[in-house]
Design goal:
The protein has about 80 residues and is largely without helices or strands. It comes from Metapseudomonas furukawaii (Pseudomonas furukawaii).
């Protein structure tokens, strides 16, 4: 099950579980759309994988299967 991480690893922007701005790779590294398009050229800086739109978990499932609250912020891994 996807963790639904709460923020962009580059800029630390909040990405709630219902955000259509979240992008992930196959390892669930999480970035905002702006960083993916403007800084990362569509590729994960951690693994080199493709970054795609993160699915939105239905609100009715979030209580039983909540999004992660662990923030990962690694701006040094992201190009300026």
């Amino acid at each position: 099950m996807l963790e639904l991480r709460p923020n962009c690893e580059c800029c630390d922007r909040d990405l709630p579980a219902d955000s259509d701005q979240a992008r992930i790779c196959s390892f669930e590294c999480t970035f905002c759309r702006d960083c993916v398009e403007q800084r990362l050229a569509g590729a994960c800086p951690n693994c080199g994988g493709e970054l795609v739109r993160r699915p939105i978990r239905p609100a009715s499932k979030l209580q039983r299967f909540p999004a992660s609250s662990q923030r990962i912020h690694k701006p040094g891994d992201c190009p300026a």
